[in-house]
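May I ask for whichever protein you like with its C-alpha coordinates?
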Amino acid sequence: MSRISYLLILFISIRGIAYGQVGHPADSLKSDSIRLKLAQDQHPTEDVSGQYDFGDLTRFILNHGRPAKPGHNRSGITVVPNVAANPTIGGQLGIKAVAGKRLGNDPKTLFSTAATSASITTKGIIYFYVNHNLFTPGNKYNFQGNLVAAKTVTPDFGYGIGRPIKGGTAADSVLANPAHKGHAIHSHYYNIREKIYKNVAKNLFLGAGLSFEIRDHIDVGDTAANATPSSVYNIRHGFPQDHYLANGFLFNLEYITRDNPNRAYKGIFFDFGIRVNQTWIGSTKNSVQLTSDFKKYFSLSPTHPQFVLALWNWGSYLVSGDIPYLELPGTARDGTYRSGRGYTAQYFKGTQFNDTEAELRFPLLSNQFISGVVFGNLQSGNDEHGTKLFQQFQPGYGAGFRVLFNKATRTNLALDYAWGRFGNKGFFLNLNESF
Protein backbone atom coordinates (compact mmCIF):
# COMPACT_ATOMS: atom_id res chain seq x y z
CA MET A 1 0.00 0.00 0.00
CA SER A 2 1.39 3.45 -0.94
CA ARG A 3 2.03 6.07 1.70
CA ILE A 4 -0.60 8.36 0.12
CA SER A 5 -3.22 5.59 0.27
CA TYR A 6 -2.29 4.91 3.88
CA LEU A 7 -2.74 8.55 4.85
CA LEU A 8 -6.09 8.81 3.07
CA ILE A 9 -7.43 5.67 4.77
CA LEU A 10 -6.13 6.88 8.16
CA PHE A 11 -7.82 10.27 7.70
CA ILE A 12 -11.16 8.76 6.66
CA SER A 13 -11.05 6.16 9.45
CA ILE A 14 -10.42 8.76 12.14
CA ARG A 15 -13.32 10.90 10.91
CA GLY A 16 -15.71 7.94 10.76
CA ILE A 17 -15.47 6.51 14.28
CA ALA A 18 -17.35 9.10 16.29
CA TYR A 19 -20.91 10.14 16.88
CA GLY A 20 -22.74 12.65 19.01
CA GLN A 21 -24.48 16.00 18.91
CA VAL A 22 -25.88 16.55 15.50
CA GLY A 23 -28.85 18.67 14.51
CA HIS A 24 -27.59 18.84 10.93
CA PRO A 25 -24.92 16.75 9.20
CA ALA A 26 -21.60 16.65 10.98
CA ASP A 27 -20.21 19.56 9.02
CA SER A 28 -22.81 22.10 10.18
CA LEU A 29 -22.62 25.63 8.85
CA LYS A 30 -22.17 27.52 12.09
CA SER A 31 -19.55 25.10 13.33
CA ASP A 32 -17.50 25.52 10.15
CA SER A 33 -17.98 29.30 10.21
CA ILE A 34 -16.31 29.45 13.61
CA ARG A 35 -13.59 26.86 13.04
CA LEU A 36 -12.50 28.36 9.68
CA LYS A 37 -11.27 31.65 11.14
CA LEU A 38 -7.76 30.19 10.84
CA ALA A 39 -6.14 31.89 13.79
CA GLN A 40 -7.44 35.40 13.23
CA ASP A 41 -6.27 36.49 16.66
CA GLN A 42 -3.12 34.35 17.02
CA HIS A 43 0.10 35.81 18.43
CA PRO A 44 2.57 36.31 15.57
CA THR A 45 5.50 35.90 17.97
CA GLU A 46 4.55 32.43 19.20
CA ASP A 47 7.45 29.97 18.83
CA VAL A 48 6.17 26.67 17.46
CA SER A 49 9.53 25.27 16.40
CA GLY A 50 9.46 22.65 19.16
CA GLN A 51 5.96 21.46 18.29
CA TYR A 52 5.01 18.54 16.06
CA ASP A 53 1.74 18.41 14.11
CA PHE A 54 -0.11 16.25 11.60
CA GLY A 55 1.54 18.14 8.74
CA ASP A 56 4.98 17.17 10.07
CA LEU A 57 3.87 13.54 10.26
CA THR A 58 2.49 13.65 6.71
CA ARG A 59 5.67 15.16 5.29
CA PHE A 60 7.79 12.63 7.20
CA ILE A 61 5.88 9.74 5.62
CA LEU A 62 5.67 11.18 2.10
CA ASN A 63 9.32 12.34 2.07
CA HIS A 64 10.68 9.02 3.41
CA GLY A 65 11.82 10.76 6.61
CA ARG A 66 13.49 13.69 4.86
CA PRO A 67 12.60 17.25 5.93
CA ALA A 68 10.28 19.36 3.77
CA LYS A 69 11.82 21.49 1.03
CA PRO A 70 12.69 24.99 2.26
CA GLY A 71 10.50 27.84 1.10
CA HIS A 72 7.50 25.56 0.54
CA ASN A 73 4.24 27.53 0.79
CA ARG A 74 0.84 26.00 1.31
CA SER A 75 -2.05 26.95 -0.97
CA GLY A 76 -4.71 29.28 0.40
CA ILE A 77 -7.36 26.84 -0.87
CA THR A 78 -7.86 23.41 0.70
CA VAL A 79 -10.11 20.65 -0.67
CA VAL A 80 -10.81 17.68 1.62
CA PRO A 81 -13.21 14.72 1.71
CA ASN A 82 -16.17 15.25 4.03
CA VAL A 83 -16.66 11.82 5.62
CA ALA A 84 -18.38 11.07 8.95
CA ALA A 85 -20.73 8.65 10.69
CA ASN A 86 -23.15 8.83 13.62
CA PRO A 87 -26.56 7.39 14.59
CA THR A 88 -28.43 10.55 13.56
CA ILE A 89 -27.17 10.93 10.00
CA GLY A 90 -25.81 7.45 9.25
CA GLY A 91 -22.74 7.44 7.00
CA GLN A 92 -21.81 10.70 5.28
CA LEU A 93 -19.83 11.23 2.09
CA GLY A 94 -19.06 14.56 0.45
CA ILE A 95 -16.47 17.17 -0.41
CA LYS A 96 -15.51 20.44 1.24
CA ALA A 97 -13.38 23.36 0.07
CA VAL A 98 -12.07 26.19 2.26
CA ALA A 99 -10.05 29.29 1.42
CA GLY A 100 -8.27 31.99 3.45
CA LYS A 101 -6.62 35.30 2.56
CA ARG A 102 -5.61 38.50 4.32
CA LEU A 103 -7.12 41.46 2.47
CA GLY A 104 -4.90 44.50 1.94
CA ASN A 105 -1.36 45.08 3.20
CA ASP A 106 -1.99 45.80 6.90
CA PRO A 107 -0.47 42.84 8.88
CA LYS A 108 -2.97 43.44 11.69
CA THR A 109 -5.93 42.72 9.41
CA LEU A 110 -7.61 39.47 10.38
CA PHE A 111 -7.86 36.60 7.92
CA SER A 112 -10.85 36.50 5.57
CA THR A 113 -12.27 33.04 4.91
CA ALA A 114 -14.81 31.27 2.71
CA ALA A 115 -16.05 27.70 2.57
CA THR A 116 -18.40 25.47 0.62
CA SER A 117 -19.49 21.87 1.03
CA ALA A 118 -21.85 19.31 -0.46
CA SER A 119 -22.63 15.95 1.17
CA ILE A 120 -25.13 13.08 1.26
CA THR A 121 -25.78 10.46 3.96
CA THR A 122 -27.13 6.93 4.10
CA LYS A 123 -30.25 8.24 5.89
CA GLY A 124 -31.14 10.47 2.97
CA ILE A 125 -29.74 13.75 4.29
CA ILE A 126 -28.46 16.12 1.61
CA TYR A 127 -26.58 19.23 2.73
CA PHE A 128 -25.06 22.13 0.76
CA TYR A 129 -23.70 25.43 1.97
CA VAL A 130 -21.44 28.32 1.06
CA ASN A 131 -20.33 30.94 3.61
CA HIS A 132 -17.94 33.83 4.06
CA ASN A 133 -16.27 35.79 6.87
CA LEU A 134 -14.51 38.81 5.34
CA PHE A 135 -12.44 41.49 7.11
CA THR A 136 -11.69 44.70 5.23
CA PRO A 137 -8.16 46.17 5.57
CA GLY A 138 -7.49 47.38 9.11
CA ASN A 139 -10.53 45.40 10.38
CA LYS A 140 -12.77 48.42 9.84
CA TYR A 141 -15.64 46.17 8.75
CA ASN A 142 -16.42 42.46 9.01
CA PHE A 143 -18.96 40.76 6.72
CA GLN A 144 -20.37 37.39 7.81
CA GLY A 145 -22.90 35.45 5.78
CA ASN A 146 -24.07 32.08 4.55
CA LEU A 147 -26.42 30.23 2.24
CA VAL A 148 -27.74 26.75 3.13
CA ALA A 149 -29.97 24.29 1.30
CA ALA A 150 -30.57 20.92 2.94
CA LYS A 151 -32.77 17.89 3.29
CA THR A 152 -32.43 17.00 6.98
CA VAL A 153 -33.38 14.57 9.73
CA THR A 154 -33.52 16.03 13.26
CA PRO A 155 -33.86 13.85 16.40
CA ASP A 156 -36.56 14.92 18.87
CA PHE A 157 -36.63 13.82 22.51
CA GLY A 158 -39.31 16.18 23.78
CA TYR A 159 -39.63 19.63 25.32
CA GLY A 160 -37.96 20.55 28.61
CA ILE A 161 -34.96 19.60 30.72
CA GLY A 162 -36.01 16.04 31.57
CA ARG A 163 -37.75 16.77 34.86
CA PRO A 164 -40.43 14.16 35.70
CA ILE A 165 -43.95 15.38 34.92
CA LYS A 166 -46.59 15.26 37.64
CA GLY A 167 -50.23 15.38 36.62
CA GLY A 168 -51.29 17.28 33.52
CA THR A 169 -53.05 16.14 30.40
CA ALA A 170 -52.10 13.42 27.94
CA ALA A 171 -50.79 16.15 25.61
CA ASP A 172 -48.58 17.45 28.42
CA SER A 173 -47.03 14.01 28.76
CA VAL A 174 -46.45 13.72 25.01
CA LEU A 175 -44.76 17.11 24.92
CA ALA A 176 -42.51 16.39 27.91
CA ASN A 177 -41.75 12.87 26.60
CA PRO A 178 -40.74 11.43 30.01
CA ALA A 179 -39.74 8.12 28.39
CA HIS A 180 -37.23 10.03 26.19
CA LYS A 181 -38.45 8.26 23.08
CA GLY A 182 -36.72 9.55 19.97
CA HIS A 183 -38.79 10.93 17.08
CA ALA A 184 -37.20 11.64 13.70
CA ILE A 185 -38.29 14.93 12.09
CA HIS A 186 -37.69 15.04 8.32
CA SER A 187 -37.70 18.41 6.56
CA HIS A 188 -36.25 20.68 3.90
CA TYR A 189 -34.21 23.57 5.32
CA TYR A 190 -33.00 26.83 3.76
CA ASN A 191 -31.09 29.66 5.41
CA ILE A 192 -29.89 33.01 4.07
CA ARG A 193 -27.99 35.18 6.57
CA GLU A 194 -25.81 38.27 6.37
CA LYS A 195 -24.32 40.43 9.15
CA ILE A 196 -22.09 43.51 9.00
CA TYR A 197 -19.84 44.33 11.98
CA LYS A 198 -18.01 47.61 12.57
CA ASN A 199 -14.98 47.97 14.83
CA VAL A 200 -15.98 50.77 17.24
CA ALA A 201 -13.22 50.51 19.88
CA LYS A 202 -10.26 48.32 20.80
CA ASN A 203 -11.44 44.67 20.76
CA LEU A 204 -15.09 45.82 20.44
CA PHE A 205 -17.38 45.22 17.43
CA LEU A 206 -21.02 46.15 16.79
CA GLY A 207 -23.02 44.24 14.20
CA ALA A 208 -26.42 44.05 12.53
CA GLY A 209 -28.00 41.90 9.87
CA LEU A 210 -30.85 39.71 8.65
CA SER A 211 -31.54 35.99 8.78
CA PHE A 212 -34.17 34.08 6.81
CA GLU A 213 -34.75 30.50 7.98
CA ILE A 214 -37.26 28.50 5.99
CA ARG A 215 -38.33 24.96 6.74
CA ASP A 216 -40.94 23.05 4.75
CA HIS A 217 -41.96 19.47 3.92
CA ILE A 218 -41.80 18.79 7.68
CA ASP A 219 -42.78 15.19 8.43
CA VAL A 220 -42.81 13.69 11.93
CA GLY A 221 -44.76 10.56 10.96
CA ASP A 222 -47.68 11.65 13.14
CA THR A 223 -51.04 10.69 11.65
CA ALA A 224 -52.97 11.68 14.81
CA ALA A 225 -51.59 15.27 14.76
CA ASN A 226 -50.88 15.25 18.52
CA ALA A 227 -48.83 12.10 19.11
CA THR A 228 -45.35 13.67 19.01
CA PRO A 229 -43.83 16.55 21.01
CA SER A 230 -43.47 18.79 17.96
CA SER A 231 -47.12 18.21 16.94
CA VAL A 232 -48.38 19.17 20.40
CA TYR A 233 -46.14 22.25 20.48
CA ASN A 234 -47.31 23.40 17.04
CA ILE A 235 -50.99 23.08 17.99
CA ARG A 236 -50.49 25.00 21.24
CA HIS A 237 -48.46 27.82 19.69
CA GLY A 238 -50.27 28.16 16.39
CA PHE A 239 -47.60 26.89 13.99
CA PRO A 240 -48.39 24.86 10.86
CA GLN A 241 -47.37 21.23 11.16
CA ASP A 242 -45.56 21.06 7.83
CA HIS A 243 -43.70 24.38 7.41
CA TYR A 244 -42.59 27.66 8.99
CA LEU A 245 -40.46 30.74 8.41
CA ALA A 246 -38.28 32.38 11.08
CA ASN A 247 -37.18 35.67 9.51
CA GLY A 248 -35.60 38.31 11.70
CA PHE A 249 -33.20 41.15 12.35
CA LEU A 250 -29.90 40.44 14.16
CA PHE A 251 -28.08 42.86 16.46
CA ASN A 252 -24.80 41.84 18.13
CA LEU A 253 -22.06 43.21 20.38
CA GLU A 254 -18.73 41.35 20.53
CA TYR A 255 -15.70 41.81 22.77
CA ILE A 256 -12.60 39.72 22.07
CA THR A 257 -9.25 39.52 23.89
CA ARG A 258 -8.55 35.78 23.56
CA ASP A 259 -5.25 35.06 21.89
CA ASN A 260 -6.54 32.45 19.41
CA PRO A 261 -10.06 31.43 18.28
CA ASN A 262 -9.11 27.79 17.66
CA ARG A 263 -7.39 27.01 20.98
CA ALA A 264 -7.03 29.94 23.34
CA TYR A 265 -4.48 30.01 26.16
CA LYS A 266 -5.77 33.23 27.74
CA GLY A 267 -8.28 36.01 27.31
CA ILE A 268 -12.03 36.52 26.91
CA PHE A 269 -14.63 36.09 24.19
CA PHE A 270 -18.05 37.66 24.79
CA ASP A 271 -20.99 38.02 22.43
CA PHE A 272 -24.42 39.45 23.27
CA GLY A 273 -27.15 39.26 20.64
CA ILE A 274 -30.75 40.23 20.01
CA ARG A 275 -32.88 38.53 17.36
CA VAL A 276 -36.19 40.11 16.36
CA ASN A 277 -38.41 37.96 14.11
CA GLN A 278 -41.14 39.93 12.33
CA THR A 279 -44.19 38.80 10.34
CA TRP A 280 -43.94 41.81 8.02
CA ILE A 281 -40.71 40.36 6.59
CA GLY A 282 -42.27 36.91 6.23
CA SER A 283 -41.79 35.28 9.66
CA THR A 284 -44.60 32.94 10.70
CA LYS A 285 -44.63 34.55 14.17
CA ASN A 286 -43.18 37.62 15.88
CA SER A 287 -40.61 37.01 18.60
CA VAL A 288 -37.70 38.59 20.47
CA GLN A 289 -34.75 36.48 21.72
CA LEU A 290 -31.63 37.37 23.69
CA THR A 291 -28.42 35.33 23.47
CA SER A 292 -25.21 35.45 25.49
CA ASP A 293 -21.92 33.65 24.91
CA PHE A 294 -19.06 34.09 27.40
CA LYS A 295 -15.73 32.26 27.35
CA LYS A 296 -12.77 32.80 29.70
CA TYR A 297 -9.35 31.12 29.50
CA PHE A 298 -6.73 30.82 32.26
CA SER A 299 -3.19 29.64 31.47
CA LEU A 300 -2.04 27.73 34.56
CA SER A 301 1.71 27.72 33.85
CA PRO A 302 3.98 30.59 32.76
CA THR A 303 6.44 28.15 31.17
CA HIS A 304 3.87 25.79 29.63
CA PRO A 305 0.91 27.96 28.53
CA GLN A 306 -0.87 24.93 27.04
CA PHE A 307 -2.02 24.02 30.57
CA VAL A 308 -5.38 25.80 30.44
CA LEU A 309 -8.57 26.01 32.47
CA ALA A 310 -11.36 27.03 30.09
CA LEU A 311 -14.82 28.20 31.22
CA TRP A 312 -17.92 28.70 29.06
CA ASN A 313 -21.47 29.93 29.61
CA TRP A 314 -23.98 30.07 26.80
CA GLY A 315 -27.65 31.00 27.00
CA SER A 316 -30.69 31.85 24.88
CA TYR A 317 -33.84 33.43 26.27
CA LEU A 318 -37.20 34.11 24.62
CA VAL A 319 -38.42 37.56 25.70
CA SER A 320 -41.71 37.68 23.81
CA GLY A 321 -43.67 35.94 21.07
CA ASP A 322 -43.27 32.39 19.78
CA ILE A 323 -40.50 30.56 17.94
CA PRO A 324 -40.82 27.34 15.90
CA TYR A 325 -40.15 24.03 17.59
CA LEU A 326 -36.99 23.28 15.61
CA GLU A 327 -35.59 26.73 16.44
CA LEU A 328 -35.92 26.31 20.22
CA PRO A 329 -32.61 26.76 22.10
CA GLY A 330 -31.27 23.58 23.64
CA THR A 331 -28.46 21.05 23.69
CA ALA A 332 -25.83 21.85 21.03
CA ARG A 333 -27.85 24.81 19.72
CA ASP A 334 -25.05 27.29 20.42
CA GLY A 335 -23.30 28.94 17.48
CA THR A 336 -20.89 26.02 17.00
CA TYR A 337 -23.20 23.08 17.84
CA ARG A 338 -20.72 21.94 20.53
CA SER A 339 -22.47 22.45 23.89
CA GLY A 340 -23.74 19.65 26.14
CA ARG A 341 -21.34 16.84 25.22
CA GLY A 342 -22.86 13.58 26.45
CA TYR A 343 -26.19 14.19 24.67
CA THR A 344 -27.39 14.35 21.06
CA ALA A 345 -28.39 17.71 19.60
CA GLN A 346 -31.61 19.20 21.04
CA TYR A 347 -31.97 16.37 23.56
CA PHE A 348 -33.10 19.06 26.01
CA LYS A 349 -34.82 22.23 24.85
CA GLY A 350 -36.95 25.13 26.09
CA THR A 351 -37.69 28.78 25.42
CA GLN A 352 -35.18 29.63 28.20
CA PHE A 353 -31.94 27.66 28.15
CA ASN A 354 -28.48 27.88 29.69
CA ASP A 355 -25.35 25.72 29.52
CA THR A 356 -22.23 26.06 31.72
CA GLU A 357 -19.03 24.14 30.96
CA ALA A 358 -15.50 23.76 32.30
CA GLU A 359 -12.55 22.01 30.69
CA LEU A 360 -8.99 21.32 31.85
CA ARG A 361 -6.50 21.02 28.98
CA PHE A 362 -2.96 19.64 29.31
CA PRO A 363 -0.20 18.37 26.96
CA LEU A 364 0.73 14.69 27.18
CA LEU A 365 3.85 14.89 24.98
CA SER A 366 6.58 17.52 25.20
CA ASN A 367 6.23 18.28 21.46
CA GLN A 368 2.48 19.02 21.94
CA PHE A 369 1.44 16.41 19.33
CA ILE A 370 -0.87 14.66 21.79
CA SER A 371 -2.80 16.45 24.56
CA GLY A 372 -5.55 15.48 26.97
CA VAL A 373 -8.71 17.08 28.38
CA VAL A 374 -11.27 16.42 31.08
CA PHE A 375 -14.56 18.31 31.07
CA GLY A 376 -18.01 18.68 32.57
CA ASN A 377 -21.19 20.59 31.80
CA LEU A 378 -24.52 21.51 33.36
CA GLN A 379 -27.61 22.29 31.25
CA SER A 380 -30.76 23.98 32.50
CA GLY A 381 -34.01 24.97 30.82
CA ASN A 382 -37.68 25.58 31.34
CA ASP A 383 -40.71 23.54 30.25
CA GLU A 384 -44.48 23.89 29.95
CA HIS A 385 -45.42 22.08 33.13
CA GLY A 386 -43.92 24.54 35.60
CA THR A 387 -40.15 24.01 35.57
CA LYS A 388 -38.23 27.30 35.62
CA LEU A 389 -34.75 28.03 34.30
CA PHE A 390 -32.04 27.05 36.84
CA GLN A 391 -34.54 24.92 38.80
CA GLN A 392 -33.37 21.65 37.24
CA PHE A 393 -29.89 20.78 35.94
CA GLN A 394 -28.69 17.90 33.78
CA PRO A 395 -24.97 16.98 33.90
CA GLY A 396 -22.58 15.70 31.28
CA TYR A 397 -18.91 14.81 31.68
CA GLY A 398 -16.06 13.11 29.90
CA ALA A 399 -12.44 13.08 28.76
CA GLY A 400 -10.57 13.03 25.52
CA PHE A 401 -7.43 13.40 23.44
CA ARG A 402 -6.21 16.15 21.14
CA VAL A 403 -4.00 15.61 18.08
CA LEU A 404 -2.20 18.75 16.92
CA PHE A 405 -3.39 19.15 13.34
CA ASN A 406 -1.81 22.53 12.48
CA LYS A 407 0.63 24.12 14.92
CA ALA A 408 0.65 27.48 13.10
CA THR A 409 -3.08 27.98 13.73
CA ARG A 410 -3.33 25.86 16.93
CA THR A 411 -5.83 23.60 15.19
CA ASN A 412 -6.54 20.33 17.02
CA LEU A 413 -8.36 17.18 16.09
CA ALA A 414 -10.57 16.56 19.14
CA LEU A 415 -11.71 13.07 20.14
CA ASP A 416 -13.88 12.94 23.26
CA TYR A 417 -15.95 10.32 25.06
CA ALA A 418 -18.78 11.73 27.15
CA TRP A 419 -21.55 10.49 29.40
CA GLY A 420 -24.93 12.00 30.24
CA ARG A 421 -28.10 10.85 31.97
CA PHE A 422 -30.89 8.59 30.62
CA GLY A 423 -28.39 6.23 28.99
CA ASN A 424 -26.71 8.87 26.86
CA LYS A 425 -23.03 8.38 26.03
CA GLY A 426 -20.77 8.31 22.99
CA PHE A 427 -17.81 9.61 21.00
CA PHE A 428 -17.68 13.22 19.88
CA LEU A 429 -15.32 14.14 17.04
CA ASN A 430 -14.55 17.75 16.11
CA LEU A 431 -11.94 19.94 14.50
CA ASN A 432 -10.75 22.44 17.14
CA GLU A 433 -11.89 22.75 20.74
CA SER A 434 -15.55 22.75 21.71
CA PHE A 435 -15.07 26.29 23.06
Notes: The longest helix spans residues 3-15. The two ends are 38 Å apart (CA to CA). The CA atoms of residues 297 and 310 lie 5 Å apart.
